From TrEMBL:
Protein name: Hydrogenase nickel incorporation protein HypB
One Pfam family cited in the UniProt record for this chain: cobW
GO molecular function, one term: GTPase activity
CobW/HypB/UreG nucleotide-binding domain boundaries: 37-199
UniProt keyword 4Fe-4S, yes or no: no
GO annotation (BP), single: protein maturation
Keyword Hydrolase set for record: yes
Amino acid sequence: MHQTFDAALEMNLLHANQRGADHNRAHFDEWGITCVNLMSSPGAGKTQLLESTLEGLKNLKIAVIEGDMTTELDADRLRQHGVPVIAINTGRSCHLDSKMVAGGLHQLQHDYDPASLDLVVVENVGNLVCPAEFEVGEHIKVALLSVTEGEDKPLKYPVMFREADCLLITKTDLTPYLDVNLDQIEANIRQINPNVTIFRVSAKTGDGLESWLEWLQQTMTHQANRLQLTV
């Protein structure tokens, strides 16, 4: 069966993006950096979680590649934590792709010493669909789902939840004020991705953050060990 033009074009775009992602990942591996792709819908709390993560991992050297369609509002928030932040405005694009992140890496390499870093977090554009389909060179995909979004989102937007290595249910401090069942949210997530690691967190109160930070550091250690075995 012949592919339609649109299907062939989409496949070519994804293949080209994947080559770029592999190239970016090779740079991260060369520098000994773990890269996390942080994804969610708008307003799920990525930036606030990232702020808490930066404060909780002051023992590590972390840089951020911050993606937004316009403005550097979130980038400016993160710069207040004293870490390198590269801002990328995507314009009308609803996600970061590997080429955009490659540009951010070139700037990071120009302005800083990447080999001195332990972790790069790519905060993707707020969107529940596209970011999961376009790899950027990450080693770990982390998705956020706010309790304010309801229980059905994993079933309605399965790609991101299927691809995630870790899923953070955020803003749990709001649960008493909402008609939402956290156990049902987890059940719906596991229906899509049975093996995903799930944490319930509140960046506002700090609940659950210790477990998230411990998981992240352990995953970084596994990544570093993997690199040593391949050298």
